[in-house]
Amino acid sequence: MVGGTFGDAVAEARTILGMSLMGAASKLGMTKALLEDIEEGLVPMNPQLQQLFEERYGIDLSMSQDGPREHVERRPMTYDAEEGLLRIDTLGVRFRVGVDDNDVLFRGFSSAVRRLRRLAPSVPLRLRAADMPMLAQLADLDDPELDDRARFWFGQDVGNGQSFSVLLRLSVPPKSAAPESTPPAGDVWAA
Predict the structure, then answer these.
(1) Among 1, 17, 138, 176, whose Cα sits 20 to 30 Å from the Cα of 23?
(2) Could you tell me which CATH class the domain 6-72 is placed in?
(3) Alpha helices in the chain (DSSP H)
């Protein structure tokens, strides 16, 4: 995405989805004028607006780990503890909590996401905010090399100023939240 603002992301998503301003405004339950103002950056982003666009457009407009917003289709991610399988859309990554280390998790996650997004291994992987709670549940947060492992597998610049381990710790869901069940089977990537 070129501009990097919420309005730019919304306009790009609408264009990618092939919707006219009038059609998108109707789908969102707002006037064409309001949608134009949002896309032009005259209306600031707020959580309710972001949720509305994400639900109606079926995309994720949240900030990626390393900066600007991007249009990324939502991919359901679940973990089946019995099978030791992290599912990302139709792909599966073998990972057993407490048995496998963070390298196994990050290598498998990176491979699956790169395949789904059709990214080359040399392209840095942008992590969605929606991915962080699941990764936080599965990763060993006490690993002293967690940040280095994440930078290696996700291709992040060392000087990006963000600590991956801090982002993960902030994303840990409440203790009562359990990972969702596994959706129907698809390709399995052995990590």
Answers:
(1) 1
(2) mainly alpha
(3) 6-16, 21-28, 32-39, 47-57, 102-117, 132-138, 146-154, 164-170
